[in-house]
Every structure is written in C-alpha cells, then in structure tokens.
Write a structure and sequence with these properties.
72 residues; mainly alpha
Length: 72
C-alpha cells in the first residue's frame, strides 16, 4: 500500500490522472468539483463585499440625511 500527500487544491497532474483508474472520469470529477467550490467561494466573497459596502453607504446616507420627522 502506498500513500501520497500534496499541498494545494489539486493533486499533481500525474496523480490526478490515476484517479481515472479508480472511478470513471475520476480526474474530471475532482477537477469539476474544485471548479465548483472555487466559484462558490468567489461568489460568497463578492456577496460579503457587497453587503459590507451597502452597510457603509447606508450608515453614511442615514447620518447625512437625518430629519426630525417623528413618524418616519
């Protein structure tokens, strides 16, 4: 039995190709999963950044446009 380890999101190409002998289209499935997870992380980071700026803008806008209307 042999054990291998690597650092990074994907195994080296030679090792990645060996997954095809274990599972049909194993290398492609691993790569597509990595692509999907990367897209999800980027989307979440963009949402977080958008919410941050909306919060900053909202706070500045509410302070600069405050009024004394008691029912608003």
């Amino acid at each position: 039995m042999q054990q291998q380890a690597w650092s990074g999101p994907l195994p080296p190409p030679a090792v990645l190709g060996q997954f095809d002998s274990v599972v049909d289209n194993g290398a492609e499935r691993i790569f597509r999963s990595w692509e999907s997870e990367t897209a999800h992380r980027q989307s979440m980071a963009q949402r977080e950044l958008t919410l941050y700026w909306l919060t900053i803008f909202s706070a500045k806008y509410s302070h600069s446009h405050s009024h004394s209307c008691s029912f608003c």
